[in-house]
Queue: 2 jobs
Job 1
Amino acid sequence: MAEDLVLDTAIRDWVLVPLSVVMVLIGILRYFVSKLMRSTQLPDAKVVKEGQVIIRARNLRAAAGFIPAKAFRARRIYFTNEENGLLHVPKEQAQNAQAQMFSDPNMAMDMMKKNLSMIIPQTLTFAWVNFFFSGFVAAKIPFPLTQRFRGMLQNGIDLSTVDVSYVSSRSWYFLNLFGLRGLFSLILGEENAVDDTQKMMQMGGFGFDASRSLAAEKDSLDIIQHEWTLPKMEQRAEEVLRKLVK
Amino acid sequence: MVGAAEEARLRRLESQVENGGGGAWEYLCLVRKLKLRRSDQVLRHGLALLNDPRARSKLGGEEWTLYEQVAIAAMDCQKLDVAKDCIATLSKQFPSSGRVGRLEAMMHEARGAWAEAERAYALLLENNPFDQITQKRRVAMAKAQGNISAAVDYLNKYLEIFMADHDAWRELAEIYVSLQMYKQAAFCYEELILAQPTVPLYHLAYAEVLYTMGGLENLQTAKKYYALTIELTGGKNTRALYGVCLCSAAISQLTKGRNKEEKEGSELQSLAVEALTKDYKKRAPAKVPLLTNMLRNMKLTS
């Protein structure tokens, strides 16, 4: 067990503090760059309309009993007929939807921009940290930790004898990368915080296939049995009134 | 629609603000949230806030929202110079913003410069064709000019895309009723019923449209919808009670010769009559004779 490594104060002045400052500055810079590059994308008419159609069809399905049978049938035909029904999706179009999404240059461009503003600075800073500060023991946390934290705190030093409470410079970089969100939300305002972790999660889910939900809605509208609930209401109204009159 | 709790809170805040007890900003926020039209108060208190530099700086970024709110309120009160100042401040802060552009177009509207406003709205829509508020403004403008058919056209075009917007459906239904296009109005009310099946007002309005259209089938349906309204309101809605009576009278007149099938409905109508008389006795005893007279004329009471 190495008895108390003494850290040079120069390490604090030239590694620990500059690293944090640089991370903060890069975060702010990135915020402004992404603000510059952000294009207010106009929603596509078709997408907006499809969303609205689905809501309306769902309403129709849920409250079908409240309108007369004639009105319901007219609406069902309007939604589901095979020629120009709102919910009807032609076969070949359904297959192309996915391909279309990838070929749309605008969308690809947008993805690129988002990724660029995220990946490039990260790789650059990581390379910078690796190049200048690799192997530094940059700080010591004032309480002991178990061995499991070694991977988290001593990334880049392969010495099993060093006490776990020492933090390597590369680990310090990672801690900053993920831990500065609170600071950013203070500096840039609540909603503007650059949240790397969240962005990474967003990367995965993209491409919502509207045609599939349209088709599902159409099927469930097709099988629904219309039963007008109003005739029952007269009796119920009578009961209500009888109670009221008494 | 404003809930009872919110309305009570609004009243309390209003009286507090009126009597100089502070809380003006909370009041303005609540008015904005509930989308109420209290232009007079908003203008007075909002302007007081804006003229006080200390209070204004306390608002931070919300300051600009307040400018917008006051500008709209000022236009409503025809204080055009105030509105102009507000809009000038806003356009200095947010040059080439669509929201400020809309305010400027509304300013044209308030001055009565319809052509200019129309052009401004068209320009805004060119930049952002899915701006719901601007599209609705255009409808409102057409209506204000008395150009009802244009309003109907705009609304129909709007509903083609935003077909789940029930406020627009409601507006369209009311316009159709005012134009006496009952079939179309009935369609709109059906749409509203589908969107919010628990709101009794829509059922009531639908029943009224059906009753107005007339015909045995429509009358019977209308009676059912009146019954539904009674059920939903617990029999408190006088209009629905009257509706049941009127429908029954009309139906019995139409089916005078063949009175075999209409037997089970009679009880509902006599109950409605009873409920009506009871309500009148309790709340307006002076008008009871009028009511009994009328019911007798309709041959609903013996």
Note: Chain B is about 75% helix and 0% strand.
Job 2
Amino acid sequence: MKILVGIKRVVDFSVRVQVKKDGSGVNTDGVKLGINPFDEIALEEALRIRERGTQAEVVAVSIGPAEVQPQLRTALAMGADRAILVETGEVLQPLMVARVFHELVKRENADLVILGKQAIDDDSNQTGQMLAALWDRPQATFASKVELKDKTLMVTREVDAGLETIEIDLPAVITTDLRLNTPRFVKMPDIMKARSKPLQVLKLEELGVTAAPKLEVTSYAPPPQRVGGKKVEDVTALVATLRQRGIL
Amino acid sequence: MNRILVIAEHDGKKLNPATAKAVSCALAIGGEIDIAVFAADAAAVAGSAAKLKGVKRVLNIERAENAHQLAAALAPQIAKLAKDYTHLLAPSTTFGKDVLPRAAALLGVQQVSDIMKVVDAHTFERPMYAGNAIVTVKAPAMPCIVATVRTASWQACSEDGHAEITAAGTDAAIPQHTRFVELKADVSGRPDLQSAARVVSGGRGVGSKENFAVIYKFADKLGAAVGASRAAVDAGFVPNDLQVGQTGKIIAPELYVAVGISGAIQHLTGIKDARTIVAINKDPDAPIFQVADIGLVGDLFQILPELEQELDKL
């Protein structure tokens, strides 16, 4: 089977992002960048499906400028067989990303696409669901457990009410939640090996994908700050304050 | 005039309170509001939905395939209904996040996720970067606007309405490729973490899985749901569905009590809309105190039993 995995370069999760003073965006100068954490989980799951004995080719796909190639090399070092970069200088929104993936899925004849449930920059949580819709195939979002059984998948999903299990037919789209697995660390020899793995670059224009409608982002603002910092001396004072506030 | 369709969230028996928050957002947009209830048997849920303020009609879309709220089943039906509306809304819960983008893609619409505030009928504020940036986005009006509503940013609307309840249906074909197997619900009997009015969370400072008993005991005394920081989840003290924070649940209870939680950014992101935050921590310099409305420095194993005694006196 062929598994496509989405790899998005984002501001590292440990960075506290600051909004620019003029409200035109966020400061990304000199900020650490890395693979979206949910995407690392997606790749890890694809690798585990292969390592559990299923004959599978794992293809890491990124959409962005040439500068995202290091993230794709990391994906290759983790164990992806090859990589595709859809090169564009534009920042694509989820519907357009889904259309690009749909085109790749058709070209590659993919059986399974594993994506992060959301990217930690725009936090949209849409692309996997949109791809599944365009492809007219099942979606299993927020996956915390994936079991492959011949032509079907049993996927446990983290939903607000608890854990939901659904059975879906392949081909299908899975989006990962944080507890699906813990991604492996990349080892030095694998980084060397990854240099010789194939990384194909396609220009976005070459794919012939129809441009999707976009949201216009008009301004960025920092979030309102909570003003805390008051302390009480003891339990009695704590209870009294809660009563004053009408909570108890 | 705007015509807004809100997709009801429910479990087949009860309307989920997140729906009333999505209706509040619809009221802020302004216009005629309908609610769609997709179910095998919609009667009980529709009755509650009809009471939500400002709702004109409740559409019952009853089909056997709608019993489990699967996105693959609901999205084509929602897309068919959309032609009569200017806006489609659903709460930004795991239900809404699952189903609505699928419907949006069928309509060729770029969805707006997590509306925090309505600027005008086409312009909204939403969070990015785990809430560290609030962006204002303008969505194209045609063919319609599709958006999820961030529940932590909205109060539930009142329940003094009298909407008309009507049966509705579509000729949408429903795929058979996705099948519900089971739902393992939390059986603790405590309130649901996502929607609870009071939440008590424990962190690394609680020390062990066994020690978490003091958190459960105190929460039960308060009638609160139990949550945890990522550190406590990673340490294996509690199951991961209790995690509060950027990568867990984002909540907005009336009262949030953080016990033995230092206050990492990713945790604070999940609680910053709580009305009152109480922090109990033995480290007076813990960052949690900077956002807490009421802080108490000390040993949680002494403070919690004392608090329980004080609560008994009330």
Note: Residues 37-51 of chain A form the longest helix (15 residues).
